[in-house]
């Protein structure tokens, strides 16, 4: 019996599809390197159906690719080798809300923006936020330990996860930490599954901590002539505020966003870099922000700036940063999502810029990132005359040199996008041989037959 027939016989009738559009749509994520070659798509509605699907995979030796909103940028949700896609999109219920603990239990298919709206209706806040919040799903966020624009204040997805319900690669169902704030009883397997990219088990439900609702945002965009001075601006504002966000982007990226979306440049005089800063609006916040801005101007760190006067203007200023990834997609960029300690960013960027100039004299490079937490996004734009294969080949070769540079600066080859297929062969730049061997051991323990997301993360 063929795999789709096995699945159809064991699961509810409408759970399994082999329609061509579904195999294509569910078989890939936002990377465009690997073709979708799934043999079936399973869309369960309950954790029991997930468990049965994993058990079948073990019994019959086929592979599963857990799938959320497929917004990933590292190939972690690609089914390119005859796998079965296990989509959690129908498991999209908000199961429970605890107002005393300020926590919520949700199924893995809940869309990030849906949870944000739910928390807002309860007078609370779910702070994990990024451009794909309208389509990414909570299970995928947890599996990749998603970060985003508010990490400087609220941390990564890991910092929100109080408990998980998972089905391991062996088909066992585990309840991890039970939503407890304090539980000092040995190994906390919950944290193994956060960031595991579907290689250890399928995340089915999560208990998540919500935050108090923040005040309305006050947003500034400042022109900064030299990247090293971005960190001086960061330090100056940190002395006065608990920052909600501190983003940075280069002028060439800003110009592309403004042209693509008919947005007005924020400042009358361009600068090499721009810092976008968000703080809570409260009594005296605007005056303190102006004082910090004027101090930075006096020091020569900032050339010009603008401060939001309304929620509408704050949202418009955020578009300058949030639209960057979408805008650059038109140039088929080769992306590197990297991080170093915040204090080492200027020195790293000088060397990285020199490397890019030497290796890609014909390519435009756009930098942007979450500078407040040391995360930079390096985008190499494909020249129109280059073929896609030639471009990828050249970029892949230089990634090794970038990896060596990150080793020297104590950085990471993947700050928040995960490893998947794209970064798998570069994992050794961040993880030692001993660590990688232990990771393989964890994989063998939870998924001994290797049915979950084979080839991803550690190969």
Automatic annotation (TrEMBL):
Biological process (GO), any one: respiratory electron transport chain
Any GO MF annotation of the entry: oxidoreductase activity
Annotated ranges, domain FAD-binding PCMH-type: 34-213
Matches recorded under Pfam families: FAD-oxidase_C (PF02913), FAD_binding_4 (PF01565)
Alphabetical keyword list: FAD, Flavoprotein, Oxidoreductase
Cofactor (UniProt): FAD
Family annotation (InterPro entries): FAD-bd_oxidored_4_C (IPR004113), FAD-bd_PCMH (IPR016166), FAD-bd_PCMH-like_sf (IPR036318), FAD-bd_PCMH_sub2 (IPR016169), FAD-linked_Oxase-like_C (IPR016164), FAD-oxidored/transferase_4 (IPR051264), Oxid_FAD_bind_N (IPR006094), Vanillyl_alc_oxidase_C-sub2 (IPR016171)
Gene3D superfamilies, per the entry: 3.30.465.10, 3.30.70.2190, 3.30.70.2740, Vanillyl-alcohol Oxidase, Chain A, domain 4
Keyword Methyltransferase: no
Similarity remark: Belongs to the FAD-binding oxidoreductase/transferase type 4 family.
Name under which the protein is recorded: Dehydrogenase
Organism: Oceanococcus atlanticus
């Amino acid at each position: 019996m063929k795999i789709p027939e096995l699945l159809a016989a064991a699961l509810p009738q409408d759970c399994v599809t082999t329609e061509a559009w579904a195999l294509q749509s569910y078989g890939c994520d936002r990377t465009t390197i690997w073709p979708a070659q799934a043999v079936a798509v399973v869309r369960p509605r309950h954790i029991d159906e997930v468990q049965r699907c994993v058990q079948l995979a073990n019994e019959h030796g086929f592979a599963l690719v857990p799938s959320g909103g497929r917004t990933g940028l590292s190939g972690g949700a690609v089914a390119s080798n005859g796998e079965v896609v296990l989509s959690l999109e129908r498991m999209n219920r908000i199961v429970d809300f605890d107002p005393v603990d300020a926590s919520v239990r949700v199924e893995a298919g809940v869309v990030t923006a849906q949870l944000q709206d739910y928390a807002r209706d309860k007078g609370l806040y779910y702070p994990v936020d990024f451009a794909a919040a309208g389509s990414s799903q909570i299970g995928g966020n947890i599996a990749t330990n998603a970060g985003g624009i508010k990490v400087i204040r609220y941390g990564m997805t890991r910092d929100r996860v109080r408990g998980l319900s998972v089905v391991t690669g062996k088909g066992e169902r585990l309840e991890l930490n039970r939503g407890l704030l304090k539980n000092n009883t040995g190994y906390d397997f919950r944290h193994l599954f956060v960031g595991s990219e579907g290689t250890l088990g399928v995340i089915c439900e999560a208990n998540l901590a919500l935050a108090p609702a923040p005040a309305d945002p006050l947003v500034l965009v400042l022109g900064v002539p030299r990247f090293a001075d971005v960190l001086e601006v960061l330090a100056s504002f940190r002395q006065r505020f608990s920052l909600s966000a501190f983003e940075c982007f280069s002028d060439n990226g800003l110009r592309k966003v403004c042209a693509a979306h008919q947005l007005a440049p924020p400042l009358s005089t361009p600068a090499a870099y721009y810092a976008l800063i968000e703080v809570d609006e409260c009594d005296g916040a605007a005056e303190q922000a102006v004082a910090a801005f004027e101090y930075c101007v006096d020091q020569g760190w900032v050339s010009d700036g603008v401060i939001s006067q309304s929620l509408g203007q704050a949202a418009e200023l955020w578009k300058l940063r949030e639209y960057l990834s979408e805008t650059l997609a038109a140039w088929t960029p080769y992306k590197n999502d990297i991080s170093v300690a915040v204090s080492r960013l200027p020195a790293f960027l000088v060397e990285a810029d020199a490397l890019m100039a030497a290796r890609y004299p014909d390519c435009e490079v756009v930098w942007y990132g979450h500078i407040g937490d040391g995360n930079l996004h390096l985008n190499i734009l494909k020249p129109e005359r280059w073929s896609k294969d030639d471009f990828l080949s050249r970029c892949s070769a230089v990634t090794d040199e970038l990896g060596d540079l990150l080793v020297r600066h104590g950085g990471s080859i993947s700050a928040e996008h995960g490893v998947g297929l794209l970064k798998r062969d570069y994992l050794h730049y961040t993880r030692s041989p001993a660590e990688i061997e232990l990771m393989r051991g964890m994989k063998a323990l939870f998924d001994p037959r290797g049915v979950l997301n084979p080839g991803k993360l550690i190969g």
